[in-house]
Amino acid sequence: MEKVTVLGVGNILLSDEGFGVRVVEHLLSRFRFSESVEVIDGGTMGYELLRFLHGTDKLILVDAIKGSRPPGTIYRFTGEEVKTYYRQKVSMHQLGIQEVLAMLEIGEKPIAQMLVLGIEPASLEMSLSLSPIIAPLVETVSAEIAKQLAAWGLPFFPLTAD
């Protein structure tokens, strides 16, 4: 069975920088995933992520991306674009993630497919809340993740209130 990991990274103390973590929280509060899908709040772990990603066949990484586009821009990188993206060091977590992905690449079993979904942050101020521009994008990016999991043939189910 293939192992699929949905990984949200970010620092929730810095408003939009915590976008990846907020997306993961959103997914976990609304869906139950098949046992082959692991949804992880990677926070600001850096190298510690290696143990969670070991054996992953497919990865969806959600991150804040400091590019040159207007706040709220959604970025989507796949395949070789992922490597290029991290070489350009535009991720808010570039050092930890870049090295983790490189270590997995040279390891015994590199990740076969990767998708990076991210947003251009509007605010990196000290706050536990996402900015008004970014907050609605949690739902948008969650829908993109659901679409990708469905394309990979991986079931997920809405949680029901008892």
Ordered list of secondary-structure elements with their pairings:
Elements: E1 4-9, H1 19-30, E2 31-33, E3 37-43, H2 49-53, E4 58-64, E5 74-78, H3 80-87, H4 94-106, E6 113-119, H5 137-151, E7 156-158
Parallel strand pairs: 1-3, 1-4, 4-6
Antiparallel strand pairs: 2-7, 5-6
Helix pairs in contact: 1-5
Explain what you see:
- The chain is globular.
- It has helices at about 20-30, 50-55, 80-85, 95-105, 135-150, and strands at about 5-10, 30-35, 35-45, 60-65, 75-80, 115-120, 155-160.
- Helix 1 (about 20-30) packs across helix 5 (about 135-150).
- The chain has about 160 residues and is α/β, with parallel strands linked by helices.
- The chain has a five-stranded mixed β-sheet with strand order 3-1-4-6-5.
- It contains five helices and seven strands; from the N terminus they run E-H-E-E-H-E-E-H-H-E-H-E.
- The model is unreliable at about 90-95 (pLDDT under 50).
Any idea what the shape is?
globular
Unreliable residue runs: 90-95
Helix-and-strand structural type: alpha/beta
Biggest β-sheet description? 5 strands, mixed
Q: Roughly what is the average pLDDT, rounded to an integer? A: 87
Strand content: 15-25%
* Residues in helix, %: 25-40%
Number-wise, the strands total: 7
Give the distance, in angstroms, between the N- and C-terminal Cα atoms: 31 Å
Taking all Cα atoms into account, the compactness measure Rg is: 15 Å
**Total number of helices:** 5
- Cross-sheet strand order for the largest sheet: 3-1-4-6-5
Helix and strand pattern: EHEEHEEHHEHE
